[in-house]
Amino acid sequence: MILLQFLVELSQGKYDASSVKDKRQLARVASVVKECFFVVDQRTRDSDYVTCDKAVVIRRFVKEFLEVASKMTCEEREQLIIVQMDRNVKLMQSYQDVLEAGRSFVRLRQELNAESEMVRAEAARANAELQEAEAEGQAAVERGAPESPE
Asked: In this structure, are residues 66 and 26 in contact, taking their beta carbons and an 8 Å threshold?
């Protein structure tokens, strides 16, 4: 939805896109620029949506990139914008993946620590019950009463 207006404008010949190849390439420029800013925005939040304010900013950057890209040759657009932005997007997505793996590790460690504490508490309770039962048995033997099986 963020790019819809740009795609319509490209299909109508705006941004000096005279050939089909130019239109497709400028659409790709718009797409990678949007994706780059979208990935950057997602890195700063844990949400899966873009706010209206962010969408306006992304549209403004896409428009500026399209205006610059429309003055470049096909080869320049490909190498200077599309390839570079694709690399940036992949790098940022890899960074996101590493961050998520780190968060998962921290959550797993916290869960394991909580489980360990529960096991320790249960072992301490069982040990206390055993010592109490042994003490009762010892007291019964000292009184001369037979031990009761429990």
From this structure: yes
